[in-house]
UniProtKB/TrEMBL annotation:
Residues 473-504 have a biased composition (Basic and acidic residues). One of its GO terms (biological process) is maturation of SSU-rRNA from tricistronic rRNA transcript (SSU-rRNA, 5.8S rRNA, LSU-rRNA). WD repeats lie at residues 264-305. Gene3D superfamilies: YVTN repeat-like/Quinoprotein amine dehydrogenase (2.130.10.10). Residues 457-472 have a biased composition (Basic residues). It is found in: Nucleus, Nucleolus. This is BING4 C-terminal domain-containing protein. The lineage of its organism: Eukaryota, Viridiplantae, Streptophyta, Embryophyta, Tracheophyta. GO terms for cellular component: 90S preribosome; small-subunit processome. It comes from Panicum virgatum (Blackwell switchgrass). Residues 342-422 form the BING4 C-terminal domain. Pfam families: BING4CT, WD40. PANTHER family: WD REPEAT-CONTAINING PROTEIN 46 (PTHR14085:SF3), WD-REPEAT PROTEIN BING4 (PTHR14085).
């Protein structure tokens, strides 16, 4: 089965070929294709030993009818300890954020409560109170530093809760996003201004007015590092730090956009907000018009639309889409061909208002921040079961962490590399078209060519050296030299011989007279 997965389709029919040379060449290639498929299957067996497991219903059962209690009973002991409900009714609603390796979780309460937790050991690392409103939280390159959007300005803290920086240039930031490959912290403030700041040097890279008013809907596409913003007029705009105007403006909803999400592969966008699909081409958005839409960003078309409201959207590593509404969260799964259908449901006690939903990387866990605290539920098949230790390692040591940080700084990409199609960087630039010469340059070249032909002396030939014949021959040479320049000048003027110009004295038929230009008085 695994060899078939990596095969290149049905092989060539060698028996029907008569050409022995071609037959031999194709036989060698087919053999190489078979060897490469076997090698890939063998590598997968050793390097990717685990496979994701989804809920499998029997006969007429529906997976969205399975409650969390029955799922927890069937899983292993370690997985059964991961779901929890943390009731914190005083300082909510809460927003959450995970590190890229899924080990650490950052929690921010609207009334100033901040906490960082080690989710592997379920240990509280640091908890403190900032005594002012917290709008959003975001980890920087690792868990050593994180940014918090507070009442007036965003602040940067270290893991011990010590304030390191106050970013006054950002103003009253409502949302924060970090671009790990570029070391850029992006924020959108209450005046609709988008800021990009390099956290490795402290330099402000860009500051743009969106011109579409206040918004708190912001998400980064992990495929190409383009920022997606959802606006009150139903539009979704996409930005990069080197462009004053948005790269793309899409009308997604007939009302304000409430959520935006991009798939971890970068292909989907969902619109209750915005989100993108696997492979860089899907986005999901949700709006006040009670619709969730999934878009294909290659054609900017809707693939799927659902009649449901959503306050928050998120795609998992394996392409599951979570949508929160009120005290209920719904999870959709792609059953093939972008056919997203309801996979799981989870409802909490009446009165709980869900805020942010976020899948934990490399785990089958969905984190929920709500008005009464924090929750974590099991979602089988949502996380990537195999991790690459060179990219994200949940069990990394202090030395590995230090080495990774140094490598990340050395490999930091400049802001110019952010574009809609990142594969464009590796291509060869197409040759520029030759610029057309001006009329003056053509005339000068023509005069030089005429002078050169006049100065050339022809050899005397018997019977053909009469003065009249020599003069006629010179005229022919001059005309031959002028001809290419005359054609060039006609192209510049835009009046080729084939187009006939109608003179002012020509009388048009009555049916066409109303289209003719009237003489200016």
């Amino acid at each position: 089965m695994k060899v078939e997965k990596y095969s290149r389709g049905k092989g060539a029919d060698l028996k029907a070929l008569r050409d022995k040379k071609l037959k031999g060449q194709l036989a060698v290639k087919e053999k190489l294709y078979g060897q490469s498929a076997k090698a890939a299957a063998k590598a997968e067996k050793w390097l990717m030993p685990s496979e994701e497991g989804f809920l499998e219903p029997d006969n007429l059962e529906k997976t969205y009818r399975f409650p969390q209690e029955s799922i927890v009973k069937e899983v292993d002991i370690l997985s059964s300890r991961k779901p929890f409900d943390m009731i914190l009714p005083v300082l909510g609603p809460y927003t959450i954020e995970y590190t890229s390796n899924g080990r650490y979780m950052l929690v921010g309460g609207r009334k100033g409560h901040l906490a960082m937790m080690d989710m592997l050991n379920m240990d509280l690392i640091k908890e403190f109170q900032v005594r002012e409103t917290v709008h959003d939280v975001a980890f920087l390159h690792n868990e050593q530093m994180y940014a918090v959007a507070q009442k007036k300005y965003p602040y940067i803290y270290n893991q011990h809760g010590v304030e390191i920086h106050c970013l006054k240039e950002h103003g009253k930031a409502l949302k924060l996003q970090f671009l790990p490959k570029h070391f850029l912290l992006a924020s959108i403030n209450s005046f609709g201004q988008l800021h990009y700041q390099d956290v490795s040097t402290g330099e402000m890279i860009a500051n743009y007015r969106t011109g579409l008013g206040r918004t708190d809907v912001m998400r980064v596409n992990p495929y190409n590092a383009v920022i997606g913003l959802g606006h009150a007029d139903g539009k979704v705009t996409m930005w990069k730090p080197t462009s004053v105007k948005p790269l793309v403006t899409m009308l997604c909803h007939h009302g304000p956009v409430t959520a935006v999400a991009f798939d971890r592969g970068g292909h989907l966008m969902a619109t209750a907000g915005v989100d993108f699909d696997r492979g860089g081409h899907l986005m999901a958005t949700a709006g006040v018009d009670s619709k969730i839409k999934i878009w294909d960003l290659r054609k900017y078309e809707v693939i799927k639309s659902y009649a449901a409201p959503a306050q928050s959207l998120d795609f998992s590593q394996k392409g599951l889409l979570a949508c929160s509404n009120g005290s209920q969260v719904e999870i959709y799964r792609d059953f093939g061909g972008h056919d997203y259908r309801l996979y799981m449901k989870h409802r909490m006690m009446k009165g709980y208002q869900f805020g942010k939903v976020l899948f934990r990387p490399y785990e089958d866990i969905l984190g929920i921040g709500h008005s009464m605290g924090l929750s974590s539920i099991l979602v089988p098949g949502s996380g990537e079961p195999n991790f690459d230790t060179f990219i994200d390692n949940p069990m990394e040591t202090t030395k590995q962490k230090r080495e990774k940080e140094i490598h990340a700084l050395l490999d930091k990409l400049p802001p110019d590399t952010i574009m809609l199609n990142p594969n464009f960087i590796a291509t060869v630039r197409a040759p520029k078209k030759k610029e057309k010469k001006t009329k003056k340059e053509i005339e000068e070249e023509m005069e030089e060519a005429i002078e050169a032909t006049k100065n050339t002396e022809h050899k005397k030939t018997k019977g053909r050296s009469k003065p009249s014949k020599r003069a006629k021959k010179k005229e022919e040479d001059v005309f031959r030299a002028k001809r290419p320049f005359l054609e060039q000048s006609k192209e510049v003027e835009g009046r080729p011989d084939k187009k006939q110009r109608i003179g002012e004295g020509v009388e048009l038929p009555k049916a066409l007279q109303r289209f003719s230009k009237k003489p200016q008085s």
